[in-house]
């Protein structure tokens, strides 16, 4: 016979573990660079931009578009790497809680 109360308890446990794992993502930080290190972007595992560092040698460059492109590239690289690390961390922290369902994307849980 189907145990509805047991199933609800299991779902609450899974939700709590997912929330705990998501909270830990703020501790993951990733720094990526562009322009051979002229621009660096640091983001956390929750995909929040924490810091931008721009080398002073390009601060006086008249080509603003180049500087903008370098910033965008650094931020995008950091975001992509942080997303990959966050997904790995979520898989590690929730292993055994959820069934192995092909196509299940942990990104749908707030990543």
From TrEMBL:
The keyword Disulfide bond does not apply. Gene3D superfamilies: Nucleoid-associated protein YbaB-like domain (3.30.1310.10). Keywords: Coiled coil, Cytoplasm, DNA-binding. It comes from the Bacteria. Residues 4-31 form a coiled coil. It is found in: Cytoplasm, Nucleoid. GO terms for cellular component: bacterial nucleoid; cytosol. Binds to DNA and alters its conformation. May be involved in regulation of gene expression, nucleoid organization and DNA protection. Belongs to the YbaB/EbfC family. Homodimer. This is Nucleoid-associated protein DXT99_04455. It comes from Pontibacter diazotrophicus.
């Amino acid at each position: 016979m189907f145990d509805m109360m047991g199933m609800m308890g299991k779902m609450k446990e899974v939700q709590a573990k997912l929330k705990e794992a998501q909270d830990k993502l703020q501790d993951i930080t990733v720094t990526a660079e562009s322009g051979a290190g002229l621009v660096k972007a640091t983001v956390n595992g929750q995909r929040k931009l924490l810091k931008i560092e721009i080398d002073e040698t390009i601060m006086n460059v008249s080509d603003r578009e180049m500087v903008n492109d370098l910033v965008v590239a650094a931020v995008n690289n950091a975001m992509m790497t942080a997303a990959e690390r966050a997904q790995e961390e979520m898989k590690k922290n929730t292993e055994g809680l959820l069934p192995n369902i092909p196509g299940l994307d942990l990104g749908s849980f707030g990543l």
